[in-house]
Amino acid sequence: MRIEVLTLFPEIFSSPLEHSILGKALQKGLLNVNVRNIRDYAFDKHRQVDDRPFGGGSGMLMKPEPLAAAIDAVRGEVPGIRVILLTPQGTLFDQAKAGELASLESMALICGRYEGVDERIRKHWVDEELSIGDYVLSGGEFAALVVIDVIARLLPGVLGDKESCVEESFSDGLLEYPQYTRPRNFKGYEVPEILLSGNHEAIRKWRRREALKRTLERRPDLLDFSVLSHEEKKFIEELKSGKRVAGSN
Ligand code: 9D3
Prior knowledge:
Elements (H helix, E strand, L loop, with lengths): L1 E6 L6 H5 L1 H8 L4 E6 L12 E2 L9 E2 L1 H14 L4 E11 L2 H8 L3 E6 L7 H6 L3 E4 L9 H12 L32 E2 L2 E2 L9 H19 L1 H4 L6 H11 L9
Parallel strand pairs: 1-2, 1-6, 5-6, 5-7
Antiparallel strand pairs: 3-4, 8-9
Helix pairs in contact: 4-6, 7-9
The structure holds ligand 9D3.
């Protein structure tokens, strides 16, 4: 996959891209990230990238000419590239959207700064607008890094067999079950007996129930999308009606 990043702060990307999973994906040649400075596409005397909003109001906007020139250059170099603007007004970037984007050959991530971008860029130069959640960032750069990280680990060959995503949170739509490692007794706190039993079927069942309990407690919204057996649905109803369940806290 090829990702083009357009930003006024290209330095933000150097360190994160060298590390962990992203670094590995880049090294293995499974992912290629190219970061460009939008200011390099500002051709007026002062290389200006922002301007005041028509109609008044506080704050500055990203002016259209440099953005359009940068996007045109990228489209010229990478035919068919999907151009995505990171903005608080975008649709939510979630695991399903990540799966969709992971199958693209290339995408451009446009990082906004200031109060936003000129509406004509949004409307006529951009294919899609994404937000990473309901909180206020100071720009699109960290959102772009989140998108790159989430997509990188979905690319074939990036994760080893061990870490591969099948059993992970969100793949089955549930939160993770509780996990323990050595020592068995840590400052008086014990590991649940069942995990030491060697009974793999009992352990599997316990983990599934713990995942269901945790999801119901913390993220009940996720249960609407998870795939549950008849028995698991019954278990959830028992939990909801306050019935005591074996192994509960
Ligand atoms: C005054 C209204 N603000 C909108 C909520 C203005 C504003 C705040 C923050 C405009 C831009 C930004 C910078 N944020 C992003 O560029 C951004 C973002 C975010 O703030 N939250 C979640 N996802 C994203 S993607 C890009």
